[in-house]
Specification:
about 400 residues; single chain; Aspartate Aminotransferase, domain 2; binds pyridoxal-5'-phosphate; about 15% strand; alpha/beta; four-stranded mixed beta sheet
């Protein structure tokens, strides 16, 4: 496990968690974007309890239940993408991506995939094969599925190690070099992409990059698979980040906040693509009644509170504060994000050399002062706070971050 410091969570309420010694922390990471409406939300707890006392489980692969069906309908309605008509429920993000990979292969009758340097999609073999954020995830676990990794648009630094960081050259590389020299496009089943890389360092690509990827996929009959597991469910201000950047995935995957804190993942696509035969895919616990009831309660609450607007407003406020900090501290190379998915990249010098010792120090100092954050990429401090933060709670967290920078160079 990649634990960064010794937080032992005993319980949580709202935006706070308490450790087993009774210390209180402001949680600016909420279980890596799972408890997006905060901890122990009364409406979610009540919905889960009610469903638990009715029936927790009905093997949804073999029988029917209204709870997952109603939740699926609500998700599709909220996504506002008419082409998305069907979904498969699993228990996690990695299972959602496994489904997306199987579906891509089944639909195209091709075998290979394209994914990105810096990507993280999960820990089971399909998803693991797509990963390229930290070599430790894959060391000694091969062989993997056939995945070709290409650079991801990283506006802060050129992924080719020179001064030209235009994203067009990555698109040209895929179309002009990869397809011509390494693997014809006609043998690629799917291109799997996070619309913002989370684990890879909260890297926000330019919109044109994502639209360019979609164009390449559409031209060559490649499934455009968008992993919205971290960016989705209002984390970036809209239900899907794809809606903001106006891309139309063939397949979308969701998890994390989907189950209102309980394990749930989904792979979503059109009826045309989801055309596999009866029994081709399934899961014992997928579409679990309690997880779906909790997820539905959380989603209804988000919609009732028009949470997307608040996420965008609070995100802007936090970004402004951090950009002001950046102006005062040379060690903060970049501040980036969308909505409440925010990263601060620490660097050694003007040449932008990553400074993991500094980001680690900030994490530890914040933890000691009662603020929970995590690391992403090589030297980025990541923030995924709950959507329900008050202005006072935001200010309290930001003040801890400001103090944690004291004397660092
Ligand atoms: N995809 C993305 C973008 C993620 O951030 C994660 C987890 O962090 C996953 C997939 C894997 O999800 P899970 O851990 O639920 O399998």
């Amino acid at each position: 496990m990649g634990r960064e410091y010794g937080l032992v969570v005993d319980h949580g309420k709202g935006v706070n968690v308490w450790d087993s010694d009774g210390n209180r922390y402001l949680d600016f990471i909420c279980g890596i974007s799972v408890n997006s409406m905060g901890h122990a939300v009364p409406e979610v707890v009540q919905a889960a309890k009610t469903q638990l006392s009715k029936d927790a489980h009905v093997e949804f692969s073999d029988f029917y239940s209204e709870v997952p069906v109603n939740y699926a309908k609500e998700i599709l309605h909220t996504m506002k993408m008419p082409s998305m008509q069907k979904m498969f429920f699993g228990n996690s993000g990695t299972e959602a991506n496994e489904c997306a990979m199987k579906l891509s292969r089944f639909h195209t009758k091709r075998q290979n995939f394209i994914a990105f340097l810096g990507a993280f999609h999960g820990r089971t073999y399909g998803s693991l094969s797509l990963n390229a954020s930290k070599a430790v995830h894959k060391a000694h676990f091969g062989p993997f599925l056939p995945v070709i990794h290409v650079p991801y648009d990283y506006p802060y630094r050129s992924v080719f190690g020179d001064d030209d960081n235009s994203y067009e050259r990555i698109l040209e590389y895929i179309d002009g070099v990869l397809f011509k020299r390494e693997m014809p496009a006609s043998e690629i089943a799917g291109l799997v992409v996070e619309p913002i890389q989370g684990e890879g360092g909260v890297v926000v690509p330019r919109d044109g990059f994502l639209r360019g990827l979609q164009k390449i996929c559409n031209e060559h009959g490649i499934m455009f698979v968008v992993d919205e597991i971290q960016t989705g469910i209002f984390r970036t201000g809209t239900y899907l980040y794809s809606q903001q950047v106006k891309i139309k995935p063939d397949i979308v995957t969701l998890a994390k906040a989907l189950g209102g804190g309980l394990p749930l993942g989904a792979c979503i696509s059109s009826s045309k693509i989801f055309s596999w035969e009866k029994g081709a895919h399934g899961s014992t616990f997928g579409g679990n009644n309690v997880a779906c009831a909790a997820g539905m309660a959380a989603l209804k609450l988000m919609k009732k509170k028009k949470i997307g607007n608040k996420v965008l407003r609070d995100g802007k406020y936090i970004m402004k504060f951090l950009k002001d900090l950046q102006a005062e501290h040379k060690i903060i190379g970049d501040v980036r994000g969308k909505g409440l998915m925010i990263g601060m990249e620490f660097v050694k010098d003007a040449k932008k050399a990553p400074a993991p010792n500094l980001s680690e120090k900030v994490l530890h100092r914040c933890f000691e002062s009662g603020l929970i954050l995590t690391q992403a990429g090589k030297s980025t401090v990541r923030m995924l706070p709950p959507f329900t933060l008050t202005k006072e709670e935001i200010d309290a967290g930001l003040e801890i971050i400001r103090k944690s920078l004291k004397g660092l160079r």
